[in-house]
Amino acid sequence: MAEAAAARRKLVEVQGLKMYFPITAGLLRRKVGDVKAVDDVSFELYEGETLGLVGESGCGKSTAGRAIIRLYDPTAGRVRIDGHDIGSAPQSELRRFRPLMQMVFQDPQASLNPRMTVAAIIGEPLGEHTELRGDALLRRVYELMDAVGLNRSFANRYPHEFSGGQRQRIGIARALALNPKFIVCDEPIAALDVSIQAQVVNLLEELQDRLGLTYLFISHDLSMVRHIADRVAVMYLGRIAEIGPRDGLYERPLHPYTEALLSAVPEPDPNVESRRRRIILKGDVPSPANPPPGCNFSTRCPKVMDICRRIEPVVAEVEPGRRVACHLYDKTIETAGGTAAATEARAPNKETRT
Q1: Is 85 helix (H, G, I), strand (E, B) or coil?
Q2: In what order do the strands lie in the sheet with 239-245?
Q3: Residue 335 DSSP code
Q4: In the predicted model, is pLDDT for residue 349 greater than 70?
Q5: Strand order of the sheet with strand 10-25?
Q6: CA contacts within 13 A on the Cβ side of 68
Q7: Is the pLDDT of residue 353 over 60?
Q8: How many C-beta atoms surround the C-beta of residue 27 within 10 A?
């Protein structure tokens, strides 16, 4: 098993990704600052795996996903997909890389052209990037509709005639049209009814097994991410707080923010739920236009130390496969307070009765 994991090939490599949006003011619209939506994010995805990207609303998850596949031009950083340098490629060259990477958007109603039929929507990327025309193109559209569970008789209908789940299936079929290797799923179930969410997630898993797809699954639904993801990355205010295998992260979170985030997930077992200790974070999330010095979580962290307010922690591997950006795990800290806090953080979480 270990040899199989070591043999996996990195399909996506993200290094030091930054996405800043300028703030302008005055009559001349001069730049006075930046909104640091994504600030020095690094991770990798292996072929055939799903990386869940989680965090609060506004933490930069969707912006990171869009910057990775160049729907936004990154401010800085490096993105490589299947060996191709996507991050710095000029717009004129991006067209030939589009079949490699696709995206499933959050709101299927807003991402589908209301004036186009299902056949036209799914067939549009085929017409742009392949030589298929006429009956050959229509046969490929039918194949894609079959793959996502849409009846072929729906081909000449318009998006407003479908339910939310069916519209999302149309979006998934469009994303699959060019046989991509990497798909960014930007909260694909957030706009759907709970009864439909499981169907869409099961469809994504089935397609992954059949086609060998690699997913970046962006979501704030921690329960669904636990179901679908192989590894999980936690974002806070534009930065990666912790990244590691799903089971280890959910069972024993290392970063104080991850610990607080997971404590808010309800347990179906009432006996377990009654013994859980909720971690209530005080204060508000700082503005990405003016993040605090040092660790960006220092203003709300229940385990904050003096060094946290002065020095930004780096993402470092503290266990095999687990990386965390926290001074509690910084071996260079020699202070008694730092050592005590680190010891406390490494201790297994104990359930206490509220």
Answers
A1: strand
A2: 101-104, 182-186, 214-218, 50-54, 231-236, 239-245, 322-324, 316-319
A3: S
A4: no
A5: 30-46, 10-25, 76-81, 84-85
A6: 35
A7: no
A8: 5
pLDDT recorded at residue 194: 83
Q: Is the pLDDT of residue 350 over 60?
A: no
pLDDT of residue 269: 72
More confident residue, 267 or 197: 197
- Asked if 12 contacts 34 with a C-beta cutoff of 8 angstroms, the reply is no
Predicted TM-score (pTM) of the model is 0.88
- The token duo for 20 is 């800043």
Segment holding 344, helix H or strand E: helix 336-346
Distance CA 48, CA 11 (A): 9
Q: What angle separates helix 118-129 from helix 164-176, to the nearest 10 degrees? A: 20
Task: Give the DSSP H/E element, type plus range, for residue 341.
Answer: helix 336-346
φ/ψ bin of 187: left (φ > 0), alpha (ψ from -120 to 50), beta (otherwise): left
Q: How far is it, in rounded angstroms, from Cα 60 to Cα 14?
A: 15
Q: Give the number of other CB atoms < 10 A from CB of residue 235.
A: 24
Question: 148, 169 in Cβ contact below 8 A?
Answer: yes
What dihedral do alpha carbons 123, 126, 127, 133 form, nearest 10°? -80
Contact 223, 217 (CB under 8 A): no
Report d(CA 180, CA 344) in Å as an integer. 45
Q: Residue 73's closest CA among 54, 51, 96, 92? A: 92
At residue 147, does pLDDT exceed 50? yes
